[in-house]
Specification:
Elements (H helix, E strand, L loop, with lengths): L4 H24 L7 E6 L1 H9 L10 H15 L7 E3 L5 E6 L4 H20 L12 H17 L5 H12 L27 H8 L4 H7 L2 H8 L15 H8 L2 E3 L4 E3 L3 H22 L1 H18 L8 H12 L6 H25 L10 H4 L2 H8 L3 H4 L6 H5 L8 H8 L15 H7 L17 H8 L11 H5 L6 H12 L2 H8 L2 H7 L3 E5 L4 E6 L2 H12 L7 E8 L4 E6 L8 H15 L3 E9 L2 H9 L7 E9 L4 E6 L1 H4 L19
Parallel strand pairs: 1-3, 9-10
Antiparallel strand pairs: 2-3, 4-5, 6-7, 8-9, 10-11, 11-12
Length: 664
Amino acid sequence: MSFDRYEARRIAADLQEPVDDANELAERLGLEPYPVNYWIVDYDEMNQLIAYDGFQRRYPHWRWGMKYDRQRKQDRYGGGKAFEIVNNDNPSHAFLQESNSLADQKAVITHVEAHADFFANNEWFGMFADDLDAAAMLERHGRKIGEYMSDPEIDRSEVERWIDNLLSLEDNIDQHQVFDPEVLSTPDPVETDDDLSEQLAELDVSDEVREEVFSDEWLERQDEDGDSVSFPDEPEKDVLAFLRRHGKQYDEEAGKADEMEPWQRDVLDMLRAEAYYFAAQKMSKVMNEGWAAYWESMMMGEEAFAGPDEFLSYADHQARVLGSPGLNPYKLGKELWEYIENTTNRREVVEKLLRVDGVSWRNFTDTVDFDRVLSALEPPAALDAITADSLDAVADLPDEYVDREALDRAREGEIDVDRHPWKMLTYEGLARRHYSLIKRQNRGFLAQIGQSDLERIGRYLFDDAVYDDVDEALADVDFSRGWDRMREIRESHNDVTFIDEFLSQEFVDANEYFTYEYSQATGGNRVASTDYEDVKQKLLLQFTNFGKPTIAVYDGNYNNRNELLLGHHYNGVMLDIEQAKRTLERVFELWGRPVNLMTIVKEVDEHDIEVAKRRNREPEPEERGKLLRYDGDEHTVEDLPWEEVEGIAASDVDYDTKPDEWLA
């Protein structure tokens, strides 16, 4: 170890109070996190944990060393420091780097509590197991695979090679289905004609003659004259499960397919289970990191969990996280959660105002005094600023806002009110205290509502003229509605549905999102669109199927020759053909027989590019069907008629956002 364990214990002891306080504050804010075990680790241990995806023990493999080296270089050369890592488990385990400042540690702890809440309450995380113990599962897998590698009867390099083959398909599962290990227990029944095999078995011929004349390849060719048996009935997304039930290993010495060894099936089962376990994290990166960044900011900044002498350090910490370049899940997620909160609260206020006698969606903007409304929405002074000297004023607040038991303890001197004013408040009190529409950065949000949104809300309000005046209407506002709605969304969405449902033109304009495209005419990238539908399409492309191509099994007996046919669900984005070929080589090792992949490519004629340049337009590519095949020796690529690939082409999704006429 690079630092003393006694020092780690000292740091842990110093952090126990912030840990307890952060958990209490999180729960008062409406979060329901898993219990979290916090561990203090040094720089090298942190890099190891990041390489191991947040766990202390994994199976032996070269990929972990590669990830460790990349993380160490990223930290060393300014690519970003890792402050913590937390895993999805019950209890969760969070690892804090011992070199963090106290402000950083407190920021990390509040961030972790929000992650633990997301793990515990998002339904996609619940699809893996009801009684989660991921650390034990991964340690068990690591131990078992290590035993296989140490077994003198098994070549260690063969185990590593088998793992390499499986990892090339780790994202080819059906992540929208509940994980079911029993699906692997028995293969699907497939009726085949065994007459030839049975007849040959009855012949009194030597093994040499049978292998020379009646080889497996010869038997497969004879099957072409009979009725073709095709399976599965529908394309199967869980490629790993299909290969587990029907695949074989390829025996290089014999030059043919052979049944998988027990250890090979066991390793496949373990890596498939791990792929399903990590799927939820990949499916909710934007939501999860945005959720954690939002509540971290609420606790550290708005509830002053960062002390006066820590705030600037914390502000710099969060600015670096949110300011990271590229597609930043922390920034995008936090902005979307804030937008959801604001739009929910705005709708709540607008619905109340539209029920005021004399106010309608047609005259709303001319009738409503928005400054007066915002003033009425301000929290009571006693709620906004709580100190040890203002406890009598706090006692006069409505019961729904105040934790009376905590107030009594504060009066007895058991609570440091100046440090922890939030301990006096209930969930409703905190929601009122932090109502989003009256925050400085959001004060114009209510007045920005569009006429179309007003009409959409107003047309379905059948009980209008409920209130005599604006003050009466605002007194009925539910100030916790925004947070309630956020928790509802947190339970059921993943990144794709989250972005698809909540990203709007208003959001895109306010946060200055845009799309860019590669121009064939100029040979460079250019801004293409600021339309929210275009931005949404580009973002969905990044997150659908973890941003990887969607591949499914279409036939396990292609051309009646026991060949595997895979299909690429083409969405306007081509495969990298060379990478696809390398992957087919891996799949061949898991199928044991030739493998095929049908896809669609875009082809642009060089002459068309030159003409497009002269006319200041983009050339029109032509889409063609292709079949990639690998038989263990060579790759072939051939054209497919459009009717054979039409079923794999998306009919209503186009991720190309280039304008029809784009000046070169």
